[in-house]
Amino acid sequence: MKALTALWLMLRGGAHLAAGWWTVRTRFPRMTPAEREARVRRWARDFLTLWRIDLEVRGQPPAHGPLLLVANHISWLDILVLHAAGFCRFVAKSDVKRWPVIGMLATGAGTLYIERASRRDALRVVHHMRDALLRGEVVAVFPEGTTSDGTVLLPFHANLIQAAISAHAPALPVALQFIDGRTGRPSLAPIYIGDQTLVGSIWRTLTTPGTRAVVSYGRPQSPEGRERRAWAAELRAAVAALRGP
Which of 38, 140, 225, 241 is most buried, judging by how many CB atoms fall within 10 Å of its CB? Predict the structure, then answer.
């Protein structure tokens, strides 16, 4: 029964992706930035509802920038969850741009792409992030650089934090967690690490009912007098505190 339900949810999810693709392709060019942001947030919330993932928001999502969101990274779901809580522009690995359908959706949502193995490309992305922050936008990064199983917090890379310093923009620590609604314990269903496939992670998520995504917003930190490596460590400590013991 779980397998049949999961198959049905995958089909409905595919239809939702296709509808989003069509909206980006045909309607986004005529929308204002505010209208596009509202549409992305509603589309992400609808996707979570469709796939039976509850959303719990703790703290206050930012209404406007300039602001750099700094979050831990667990799953392919992280971007959907953060979009559902409050719109932001993400920095994502360049591979995402080439994914069928999803790449167009990510680009339509304003994603900035980075070649993670290239230091020169990191500098280019930092400049684009700085410009977005100077325009008053909210930009989100996953400074761990990769996903974890959610039970540990990896070291934060400092390169992308430089954008907030250069733009004189505050940074906001954000903690992501996935909770099993039946037990109240961390859920490993949505994790996407190591040799796991995206399809396998999606299937495990859809066959594990009762998952709750928790987004915890901390307090913004000023960039004044900051050095990026020390600030990255302080932001990591703040995210760890938001996750709780």
Answer: 140
Residue corresponding to tokens 């080439």 = 98
* 27: helix, strand or coil: coil
CA atoms within 13 A on the CB side of 141: 30
SS3 204: helix
Instruction: Write the DSSP string, 111-129.
Output: -EEE-TT-HHHHHHHHHHH
Mean pLDDT of 95-123: 79
Instruction: Write the CA distances from 93 to 79, 99, 112, 198, integer angstroms.
Output: 12, 11, 8, 15
Residue ranges of the domains in the chain?
2-243
Three-state DSSP class for residue 203: helix
- On whether the CB atoms of residues 125 and 133 are closer than 8 A, the answer is no
157: left (phi over 0), alpha (psi -120 to 50) or beta: beta
Query: Are 105 and 17 contacting, i.e. CB atoms less than 8 angstroms apart?
Result: yes
pTM above 0.85, yes or no: yes
The CATH number for 2-243, chosen from 2.60.40, 2.40.30, 3.40.1130, 3.40.50, is 3.40.1130
Alpha-carbon distance of 201 to 11, in angstroms, equals: 16
